[in-house]
Amino acid sequence: MVQIQPSPQRTGGDQFTIKWPSRKFSGLRGKGKSLIWSLAMAGSTGVFAEIIDGDVFKYYADGEWKKSSSGKSVAIINPTTRKTQYKVQACTQEEVNKVMEIAKSAQKLWAKTPLWKRAELLHKAAAILKEHKAPIAECLVKEIAKPAKDAVTEVVRSGDLVSYCAEEGVRILGEGKFLVSDSFPGNERTKYCLTSKIPLGVVLAIPPFNYPVNLAVSKIAPALIAGNSLVLKPPTQGAVAALHMVHCFHLAGFPKGLISCVTGKGSEIGDFLTMHPAVNCISFTGGDTGIAISKKAGMIPLQMELGGKDACIVLEDADLDLVAANIVKGGFSYSGQRCTAVKVVLVMESIADTLVGKVKAKVAKLTVGPPENDCDITPVVSESSANFIEGLVMDAKQKGATFCQEYKREGNLIWPLLLDNVRPDMRIAWEEPFGPVLPVIRISSVEEGIHHCNASNFGLQGCVFTADINKAMLISDAMETGTVQINSAPARGPDHFPFQGLKDSGIGSQGITNSITMMTKIKSTVINLPTPSYTMG
Ligand code: G3P
């Protein structure tokens, strides 16, 4: 039986001296220190000035930015410097209660707000978000070490998602069904059934560290267009980017209390939020915490995406240059910290040497360093995450995997590593590293590749490379994953595509249309006639 280890923790870390350009900031005093401070807070000036108090970012409730009565804060460690970059409020359970109470009453009014008006506000928020892409992206660089250009892309993609969601909401929520009773045996045409989609109430959104803006708006926008109110609990790493994003919604002029954002320790408010009786729906993306949430949440709709071990099956007739490019992009972008990253390559033995050579050549060209320099490989999110990745690498080394590059790590920065000749007895064959290390398993038949893919506890996405579309379709049907990509690496986007995981990868389907539908329920009104309606005339 396959044993999957818990996902690496997404926070924590001690100090180390970095050897890249930002090294010059460590140990500065006086003027130098204030330079660091102004750089660190650069995203919190201008329109964002009101979201911070001293050096602690406020939380958002009842349409206002507030300080927690706890007087405590949670530190956000910059993965690159491994020093505290930001601080956020440690909200209390009483504050969560207040937020829920307000969210409940705000939702009642919001549900009565015309659909076109909800869409209009979302379009406004999208525009404001894009206008402020630079300061928000800067937070992503500092909090989660996302490469500078990717950080900007995340914000722009989020704006586009919000706009598309507004459009889609107007289309799909403006339509319902009309049914007549005489299509069911034994009935006359005496009943007309009208169905429409109505909101669920309060939606709790919990996004992960790797897309704290995009995977927040992918929950916020569908919830709002469908007439729900929204409580956001951002990940600790990424919370400040999320607070900036929430401020864009604030500036757009949404009603007070409709959107709230509470920050704090999962240990203090995590269960309290997910088990709160006011919550009518939870949309969660992250690690296996989601499994625990699903057991505690109660009788409410859940939407969860909990990671993957996406397999890349490569057949003999594949275009190996295309495969190599996709393996490197799919396996190493954002240092492998994507649920949809290629996490295991299953290649036919006869072409394995050629493919590994091509991938190796491309890996050699990846730049490694700080996110500010827009390097391809940047530090992973935390020291505990780096330690977890290292554990997988060492296990593979001990069991005889071939290292295509030398294993190298400095602090949270791990150099990209391709591991060839990985066998099923190695942990890395099954576990999700969430880092820039990629195993290659050589297979002697397609069936062996499919078997490996399906033996995983995960079932998010997979991909197959072949010139034969007929074979590709057979393999796609055989792979037990929510999505199979043919001749391309796994990916969630475009964001209106359905996105779902099987097995431990999640519950429900995402993507804009599915998320809107999931955040509604069906309401029927039946018109009962005293006589069948077709008897006149
Ligand atoms: O949770 C999904 C995320 O980790 C991957 O999204 O857009 O990089 O495929 P994407």
Automatic annotation (TrEMBL):
Q: Where is this protein primarily located?
A: cytoplasm
Q: Which InterPro entries match?
A: Ald_DH/histidinol_DH (IPR016161), Ald_DH_C (IPR016163), Ald_DH_CS_CYS (IPR016160), Ald_DH_CS_GLU (IPR029510), Ald_DH_N (IPR016162), Aldehyde_DH_dom (IPR015590), ALDH-related_metabolic_enz (IPR051020)
Please write the reaction equations for the catalytic activity of this protein. Answer: D-glyceraldehyde 3-phosphate + NADP(+) + H2O = (2R)-3-phosphoglycerate + NADPH + 2 H(+)
Q: Which keywords does the record carry?
A: Cytoplasm, NADP, Oxidoreductase
**Residues at the active site:** E305
Q: Which CDD domains match?
A: ALDH_F11_NP-GAPDH
Q: Please state where this protein is localized.
A: Cytoplasm
Q: What class of enzyme is it?
A: oxidoreductase
Origin superkingdom = Eukaryota
- Please provide an example of a Pfam family that matches this protein in its UniProt record: Aldedh
Q: A Gene Ontology molecular-function term?
A: lactaldehyde dehydrogenase (NAD+) activity
E.C. number(s) listed in UniProt: 1.2.1.9
Q: Which residues form the Aldehyde dehydrogenase domain?
A: 65-524
- Gene Ontology cellular-component annotations: cytoplasm
**PANTHER family xref list:** ALDEHYDE DEHYDROGENASE (PTHR42991)
Q: Which family does it belong to?
A: Belongs to the aldehyde dehydrogenase family.
Q: What is this protein called?
A: NADP-dependent glyceraldehyde-3-phosphate dehydrogenase
The scientific name of the source species is Nyssa sinensis
Lineage, opening ranks: Eukaryota, Viridiplantae, Streptophyta, Embryophyta, Tracheophyta
